[in-house]
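To assess whether ligand presence alters the predicted conformation, the chain was also submitted together with magnesium ion. Input:
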Amino acid sequence: MNQRHIAVQTAISRPYAEPILISAKVSEYFGTNVFSRLVMREYLPEDVYRQLTEAIDKGGQIDRRISDQVASAMKAWAISKGASHYTHWFLPLNGATAEKHDAFFSPVEPNLSIEQFDGSKLVQQEPDASSFPSGGLRNTFEARGYSAWDPSSPAFIMDGTLCIPTIFLAFTGEALDFKTPLLKALTLIDQVAVDVCQLFDRNITRVYPTLGWEQEYFVVDEALYYARPDLVMTGRTLTGHIPARGQQLEDHYFGAIPHRIAAFMKEFETEAWKLGIPVKTRHNEVAPNQFELAPVYEEVNIAIDHNQLIMVLMDKVARKHRFRVLFHEKPFEGVNGSGKHNNWSLATNTGKNLLSPGHTPKTNLLFLTFFINIIRAIHEHSDLLRAAIASAGNDHRLGANEAPPAIISIFIGRQLTGVLDDLEKRVKDRKMTPDEKSDLKLNIGKIPRIIIDNTDRNRTSPMAFTGNKFEFRAVGASANCGPAMIVLNTILANRLKQFKSEVDKNMDKGIEKDEAIFRVLRKYIRESKNILFEGNGYSREWLEEAARRGLPNLKNTPEALHSYVSKKTIALFERHAIFSEKELHARFEIRLENYSKVLQIESRVLADLSGNHIIPAAIAYQNILVENVRGLKDVLPPELFREHSAQQIHSISKISEHVTQIRAMVRQMIAERKEANQQEDPPACAKAYCNKVKPLMEEIRYHIDKLEILVDDQMWPLPKYRELMFIK
Ligand code: ADP
Ligand code: MG
């Protein structure tokens, strides 16, 4: 028995673990581990409660007296729930979550201690953060960073620690996390969108973007996972022959959830509910052992915190159930990869969804305004949006046959296309008649129902309008949604600001308001309609068509990331004070370095696998064949021997050929890696990994996968795809 057999035995004889559940209704314990408004009301004096919630809703300052009182309330509440520690919880640029726990307990004199936590500890801390990626923003001699409380995302208790969501900055003030620029973008869109809404409805005084993410993931039994060094080290399989059966029977999607998986899901959902994460939907995805979960949408900042939190939670609970969760975008060749659809819309203080056409002409023009501004904004910055979702993992998915292409286009459905055509053509350069206007506005009112009812949905589009929201599908499963949300909200705010000033200009010329708005919208449609695409985004024809239209097709991460530091991008972000040029360069470098490091690790692991696992197994089997041929020669008459040994000898030479190729290419790959590592310039290094190292990895894999079907199953050292994906 080799390691693989032991792993398979362990996995299939795994006893079913009962999930730890709570025998109450979810509504009775939802959010019990959150320092929610309900808790605040109970623990805070009335005036402090009011000032805090006002500051949260309107983004005002929180003074020292208030923060002291909040800290003391948090401490009392957390200790009453059994917490012993507290931590600032933040989202550094390594893509993970970060926490450093401190105990509340504090000795005051020998044998006497008290629990301490005050406003200063709540508001700001200075973790020595020299080991987080900074893209050169922090010199090691100035290694301090600081974290600062984000009151708009509620504190929570996890594993006996009070976690306080914070932003994370270099001591010189540059952002070192995903949250800081996000909060700036959210403040910006609020101001600008309210200005635009005021053209239609004076009651709208606050606009906040909403996000509902759909998280896809794979689950693998822990024993099988440990028997695959590539999964352990890189989160994906670097080799593995596609099994006879993959997803072609289409029997996994929405199928019955296996018992063991369901137990795992129920337990992490219970934990999520306690943390106030509104997870709602679970189902089997397309690929074997692939699943999805989705919450009810929330305000973007909280939705992102919740997404990061649930990934951590799922990992923890999976281990208890002897599983590993794979959030990698492409853990297995030959079946679908995993994405994280970002459903995005904008909501108002009046309870309106700005992307949901209503029943009155007035609200429909408001809808149309935001709808067309979004299209115009994405058209202008589609390369930046592409850059926002670029990563080594996502490169395997984008442009592959199951995922959106690397070309950003927008699907809006037949009816809305008709509306935009009408608006553009029918009323060209002349005033619309009142009848035309109300006709147009009324028609829009019918659209969301049509879309929702007919599920007029194009699954191949990276950005689809789905009735009352845009669904950005190109985000990778492991990604922080931050970059995508920062870009979408900033480019929209940028466009809305220009829209408002163009409308104002028209009105200054004495043009009536509706007409002034229609004129700008018409111009925007004309300028941006070539990003609209209703056809099959996976098809070859689309690649050609998109090229004719001049839409960027940035095929890989090193290419795509350049948009982060283009003149246009720098001007955009500096204009709105979301990122400085320095910060953008830092992010550009961090992302490139991450790309190179991921490929470096993968390439090293592949070399190890080749030399230590694959080639020894292939040679051992080859020796058996050689022995067999020798034996046949001893016992068979020469004519029969020639006939009967031909196939064996063919196999022997095939194995030899693949082994030789693997050896040669591993040597070449190591040489290319050395070459790449010598490139000091991060873009050059990433490019070398992309163009020189990666193709060799693919070729090496090809030969290893061929060996997998030649070598005796008993001798193959690594769990095969059929075992990884079908044992549940
Ligand atoms: P699917 O796209 O899988 O068919 P739905 O359209 O029902 O599923 O919803 C998918 C996701 O869209 C859910 O996570 C939901 O919370 C989110 N969603 C719905 N409305 C909004 C909105 N106004 N803003 C942001 N997300 C939304
Ligand atoms: Mg969806």
